[in-house]
Amino acid sequence: MSPYVVMRKRIAFLFLCVSAFLVVLIIRLGFVQLSQGADLRKKADDSHFRGVPVAPKRGNIEDREGNILAMSVSTETVYAIPAEVRQSGRAKEMAATLSSLLGKPAGEIEARITKRSALEYVQKRVSPEVAAQVRALALPGIGTTEDSQRYYPNGSLAAHIIGYSGIDNQGLEGIELTRESELKGIPGSILQEFGANGIPLPQAEHQYLAPKQGNTVRLTIDKNIQAFAERELQKLMTGQGVNMNGQVPKNASILVMDPNTGEMLALASAPTFDPNRYQEADPSTRRNIAIQNGYEPGSTFKIITLAAALEEKKIKLNEHFYDKGAYTVLGKNVRCWKAGGHGDQSFTEVAENSCNPGFIEMGQRLGMDTFYKYLYDFGFGQKTGIEMSGEAKGILANKKKATALDLATMSIGQTNNVTPIQLLTAVSAVANGGTLLKPQLVKEIIGPSGKVVTPFKKEEIRRIISEDTSKTEREALEAVVTNGTGRRAFLPGYRVAGKTGTAQKVQNGGYIQGEYIASFVAFAPADKPRLAILCVIDGVPFYGGVVGCPIVQTVMLDSLRYLGVKPDPKAPLTPSKPMQGLEFPPIKKAATVPSVLGLPLAEAQKILAEAGFKTMTEGKGGIVLDQIPHGDVQVEAESNVLLYLGADASTPTLGSWWEDGDEDIEAIRSLTGRVPISASPLGQ
Asked: Where is the PASTA domain (predicted)?
């Protein structure tokens, strides 16, 4: 073969190899460009673009009527790009300058602005004036960016529900925590182009990626009803509670639910705290006792025993039972609260009198298996699923080890441990016709555009008792208020059903003498309930009928008026069995509250006075920013209207609310007038 031919073959082979390599290279390049192009571009941009994060504003938290309970106010953050600071060679000088403006030690600032990192925050939440001074200095590597801070315009109102957020605007408790993903929004950034040496390029490209505001979370809570409940708790915690004789409980809670939907209209606990200053509060005040604390419910639990006995047809309300003063089980006497007992009575009267032996008889007729079935069906020993962190399950006695004596004490509300939210949810099932509903705190999620993103509907868990049983028990519980131990909760013209409760406190395996957990649960109107209310007062030497009834009576009356529920002309105006020295609030004329939002204080007071209302003020300034009750709401004539004041008719500035230092006690003063109630103590 000639050298020429050999040469041509070698060239052809080389050409084929080069062609194959180029084909492979093109295929690889195409694959990289199409499949990894976006990632590689991002890495390239990251190497010469440096971004300063721009925090998004958290979404608002509102009550069911759209009143703002939590919002974000604009503030600014001073940041540093350490690479630029180090390159300038002026770190010590810059630290000294910033120290005088920010009020931080120069050494601490120098360490931060020269740190080996891409970005450092020097100071968050600086005032606009200080931020402007920092920008005017034009220090290399030092800048400011928009930020926001959480603001709770109503102070401590609904604090245990709303929760609070931290220095970085992250939710730490309450709805702020459970709805963090919806509230937090999406951060933006300001991008600037740098060379490989870390110096900003001349005529460098700047990009602004706008942050996206978080969604609004609208709660089922009603701001006015919440205020009614917190007002009564404030009275309790300052020794002004009716029949408390100046004594202050360890803690207390009031829960208000719509029994037909499971929506919580109010959930108040005391002591409380101001989420604007949560760091200053005792950690114990931040505990949501209505959700996280368990207690022995006492006689309020008899509602459950009665429901089970009626549903299983173990009793008839007209059937008679003789109470001799005690019920003997396994050789042990479980006494009635009334010395000598109630004697002969129907089971309706057993309910009216809260007779322990009568309810023990119901439990014994039910038997252990059936009784526990209703415990589970009503949701005891398990979480309700309400949207709050740290919910307790309560504690039920071990069924396998329980005796007839345990059954006796469980029938009257002892031995087992429940939470307030569990009990109110169970009682609401009795009130609404027999269906257990999941308690709800969130009504809907609303996007920044105002469109509802996620609506929430009532969740039926199970039917427990029949409509007939519910109707029968509602009538029996109404008799408790008109004839029995709940007469201090009687409302002229309204049909109220309820049950008192007094339980001894457990400590070191035994009961504390002379210290009780007093409670009262009620719903109204009894025939078509709109509200179910539970009040629990921990650490008082009084019975539930003495201190719990007047509180629920007041919150119930104010709330029914507010909701526009008119008195029933067929409802009684006085109890069937009046008690000596017991007074009841007269039915006052209803009046409509005028709206005075945005008006000067003097003009607002004049308008309200002409409409027959008194005024109280909260905050500093001459303009009305908010009012409770709101405009166009019907309440009792001559009620008090609380006016929130500020410098102008817009949202108060960060400086104004942070520096006021006003106490929240004024925000939950009495909003409506009422007649004091005084009576001799009741047994249950």
From this structure: 588-647
Supply 290's token pair: 């209505």
Give the tens place of pLDDT for each residue, 426-443.
999 999 999 999 999 999
Is residue 105 within 8 A of residue 81, CB to CB? The reply is no
Q: To which H or E segment does residue 391 belong?
A: none
Q: Between β-strands 442-446 and 497-507, what pairing exists: parallel, antiparallel or unpaired? A: unpaired
| CB burial of residue 24 (10 Å; 0-12, 13-18, 19+) | exposed
Q: How far apart are CA 358 and CA 321, in angstroms?
A: 7
Helix intervals (H) in 211-293: 223-237, 289-292
Q: Which residue type sits at 485?
A: T
Please name the residue that has the structure tokens 């509250």: 593
- With bands split at pLDDT 50, 70 and 90, how would you rate the model's confidence at 192? low
DSSP 665: G
The helix or strand, by DSSP H or E, that contains position 627, with its residue range, turns out to be: strand 623-628
Task: Please list the residue range(s) of the chain that carry CATH number 3.90.1310.10.
Answer: 53-154+182-218
681 band by pLDDT with thresholds 50, 70 and 90:
very low
Fold for 223-563, please state it: Beta-lactamase (3.40.710)
Q: What's the average model confidence in pLDDT over 160-177?
A: 92
Rounded distance between C-alpha atoms, residue 340 and residue 480, angstroms = 21
Q: What CATH number belongs to 590-645?
A: 3.30.10.20
Residue 238 phi/psi, 5-degree rounding, is -110, 15
> Given the structure tokens 């609404």, which residue do they identify?
432
The CATH class for the domain spanning 53-154+182-218 reads alpha beta
Q: What is the pLDDT of residue 662?
A: 28
Residue whose C-alpha is closest to residue 497's, from 483, 507, 511, 510: 483
pLDDT in the model for residue 203 = 53
- φ, ψ for residue 529, nearest 5 deg: -60, 135
Residue range(s) in the chain whose domain bears CATH number 3.40.710.10: 223-563
Mean pLDDT of 469-484: 95
- Quick: pLDDT tens for 612-661: 888 878 777 888 887 877 787 766 677 778 788 887 544 433 333 332 22
To the query of whether residue 47 is one of the catalytic residues in this protein, the response is no
How far apart are alpha carbons 433 and 428 in whole angstroms?
9
Give Cα 628 to chain centroid, integer Å. 19
Write the DSSP symbol of residue 196: T
Q: Say which residues have a Cβ less than 8 Å from residue 67's Cβ, sequence separation at least 6.
A: 223, 626, 630
Within 8 A by CB and 6+ apart from 680, the residues are 579, 580, 581
Kindly give the pairing relationship between strand 171-173 and strand 332-335: unpaired
Distances (CA, A) of 677 to 137, 234, 484, 560, 576: 67, 18, 16, 19, 17
Catalytic choice (72, 148, 253, 299) = 299
